[in-house]
Fold this sequence. Notes:
Layout: E1 10-13, E2 23-31, H1 37-51, E3 54-60, E4 66-74
Antiparallel strand pairs: 1-2, 2-4, 3-4
Amino acid sequence: MRGMSRPPLHTTSRSGAQRPGVEFEFERLTISRELSRNAVTRMLVDLAEHGGWELDRLRLFPDGTRKVVLRRKIIRQSRPSYSLR
C-alpha cells in the first residue's frame, strides 16, 4: 500500500447531484491481497475518522488486490471584507 504522506492525486469539481462549486481532492491506493478484509476496513475507517476521507470507489481484482479511491471535500474560506474608513 502506498502511504498517505504525499499530496492528493488531483482535485476536481463534480456536477450533478453535488452542490455546484463543491471541490474534492482524491487519493488512489493499491492495497495488497495479503491484508485481510478486517485490516482494510480498519485502515479505511481510520482514514475517514482522522483524515476526513470518504470512500469514492473500491475495485476488487481477481488476484485479490484492491484499488481504492478516496475523496474529501476541499473547504475554501472566504476572505473577510473589511471596510477601513
